[in-house]
User: Which sequence fits this backbone?
């Protein structure tokens, strides 16, 4: 629709210029005014004229009447003024030739653009805390982050994905104590991260009874900071084991990172940052700790060093931002974490600004809401967590059972169950507005008949099998064919994809794509249900419907790619 909106806007602006050369509106302004009427009977696109009333110094109805008289466009069948709106009815020819033609020509690139050409964006996402469980709380940063990266790539940006691992901090002191006291190297080699998490949980349970364990942990962390050989080796080993495990989950989601530089990577870069903060007069002592005072900006102080001189989370983030600017020369650096960390980001963004870094305005925090499962909150310390891999495993298992019933002879069943099961979790998660809290109910996510990932994947698979069965009908030309109402709705849904991509990008909101997928699936399934395709009433109708299905297949596939969902051909 963006193409069409631009065409219409060019023409509208021409008329406005003639009416009042002083109106001061750009073509982009005019494009942004368009709305979609609530009911397609009113039209396919609506242009609200009351927004123009002030600059045009005319009543909305008068503007609408004048526009109607003066506009003549071959892509529009009919223009109707109604209550300050001008409603446009798109011509069949435009939908069935221009829109369909564009999708079929652009194929895997349909929806892409070059708005980000020449610009670089760094994405800091997923970033689990090593040796702590990779739990469902990290699902948001992982899939929202990756989806945002994909969206930016699709819009022509150069993207860098960084997994800012939580691989430094006092939890390693605890882990080292726990390992030295109760650890079993062989068991950890065998069971991997689960065993590390068990040690972490045990540490907290024991420390409740014996507080001195916390002092011991602090001492071990200080040793680690000072380069103790044994502690360093243990720490490295914990990280290796954890990354190996995370990569299994990332593989299921088709996620790869360009860098795994975690917090520890910035350790040796901190002294220079501290010196700079001091030189710029920003560092203050506050009960022994070094902080940057942000009172003037309505925020609590940003904590840089503890009283014992060890660095804190914000200090490492400041060093990381400076390093990334030097290394990637980003235009934007996007951080995806739960909303609970918002203040932390606002604080260190401010500190970088106060350090005189103009590029700090390119730092963006994208927060998201909390997750509960079947109504239960999560807590790491008590071990009451749902691990991401367990959630995926459960989903895969359930999908496999459903497949056993529905389609017992399906080849590569397990592989497909992985794609559909993982896709179901991701889709369900990304259907929500990211900032809203979400209660995860696996049964709902897996409902093949609901507005779910499996339903979307099923629709996609449906287009694929149709294209396979009717491949020969895609070869010939389509003669003169006038689309019916059902087909029009699919064409209109196809037409809005590029602007939905831009909308998702602008709002950092993958749910725009998830909802788009549901809209397109709904339009396509109504069409599929009501119109014969392979046995259509005429050759032209058959050829047209096959192409419509092919275009839907491209658009759905492209949209899946933007939300980390695999394109499963047969289910
Ligand atoms: N490791 C942190 C956590 O799990 C998230 C890190 C986010 N990125 C950052 N640069 N601070 O809460």
Assistant:
């Amino acid at each position: 629709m963006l193409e069409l909106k631009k065409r219409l806007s060019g023409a509208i602006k021409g008329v406005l210029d003639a009416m009042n050369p002083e109106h001061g509106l750009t073509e982009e302004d005019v494009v942004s005014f368009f709305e979609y009427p609530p009911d397609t009977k009113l039209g396919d696109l609506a242009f609200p004229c009351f927004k123009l009333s002030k600059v045009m110094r005319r009543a909305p109805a008068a503007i609408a009447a004048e526009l109607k008289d003066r506009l003549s466009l071959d892509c529009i069948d009919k223009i109707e003024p109604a209550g300050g709106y001008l409603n446009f009815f798109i011509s069949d020819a435009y939908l069935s030739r221009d829109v369909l033609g564009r999708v079929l020509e652009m194929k895997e690139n349909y929806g892409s653009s070059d708005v980000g050409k020449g610009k670089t964006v760094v994405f800091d996402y997923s970033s689990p805390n090593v040796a702590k469980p990779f739990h469902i709380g990290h699902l948001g940063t992982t899939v929202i982050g990756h989806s945002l990266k994909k969206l930016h790539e699709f819009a022509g940006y150069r993207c860098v994905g960084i997994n800012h691992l939580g691989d430094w901090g006092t939890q390693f002191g605890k882990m080292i104590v726990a390992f030295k006291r109760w650890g079993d190297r062989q068991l950890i080699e065998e069971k991997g991260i689960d065993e590390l998490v068990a040690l972490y949980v045990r540490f907290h349970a024991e420390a409740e009874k014996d507080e001195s364990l916390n002092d011991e942990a602090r001492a071990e962390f200080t040793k680690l900071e000072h380069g103790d050989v044994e502690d360093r080796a243990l720490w490295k080993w914990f990280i290796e084991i954890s990354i190996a495990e995370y990569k299994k989950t990332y593989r299921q989601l088709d996620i790869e990172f360009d860098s795994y530089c975690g917090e520890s990577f910035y350790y040796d870069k901190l002294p220079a940052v501290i010196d700079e903060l001091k030189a710029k007069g920003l560092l203050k002592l506050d009960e022994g700790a070094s902080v940057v005072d942000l009172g003037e900006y309505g925020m609590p102080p940003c904590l840089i060093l503890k009283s014992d001189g060890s660095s804190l989370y914000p200090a490492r983030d400041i060093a990381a931002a400076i390093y990334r600017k030097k290394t990637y020369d980003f235009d934007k650096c996007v951080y995806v974490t739960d909303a609970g960390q918002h203040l932390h980001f606002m604080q260190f963004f401010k500190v970088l600004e106060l350090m005189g870094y103009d590029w700090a305005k390119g730092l963006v925090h994208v927060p998201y809401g909390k997750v509960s499962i079947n109504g239960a909150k999560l807590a790491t310390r008590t071990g009451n967590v749902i691990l991401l891999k367990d959630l995926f495993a459960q989903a895969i298992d359930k999908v496999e059972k459903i497949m056993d019933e529905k389609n017992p002879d399906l080849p590569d069943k397990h592989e497909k169950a992985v794609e559909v099961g993982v896709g179901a979790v991701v889709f369900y998660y990304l259907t929500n507005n990211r900032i809203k809290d979400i209660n995860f109910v696996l049964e709902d996510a897996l409902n093949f008949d609901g507005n779910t990932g499996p339903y979307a994947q099923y629709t996609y698979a449906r287009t694929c099998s149709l294209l396979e069965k009717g491949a020969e009908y895609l070869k010939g030309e389509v003669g003169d064919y006038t689309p019916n109402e059902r087909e029009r709705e699919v064409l209109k849904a196809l037409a809005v994809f590029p602007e939905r991509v831009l909308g998702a990008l602008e709002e950092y909101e993958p749910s725009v794509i998830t909802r788009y997928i549901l809209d397109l699936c709904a339009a396509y399934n109504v069409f599929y249900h009501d119109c014969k395709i392979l046995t259509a009433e005429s050759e032209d109708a058959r050829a047209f419907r096959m192409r419509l299905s092919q275009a839907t297949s491209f658009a759905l596939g492209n949209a899946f790619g933007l939300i980390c969902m695999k394109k499963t051909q047969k289910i």
Notes: The longest strand covers residues 76-82. The two ends are 32 Å apart (CA to CA).
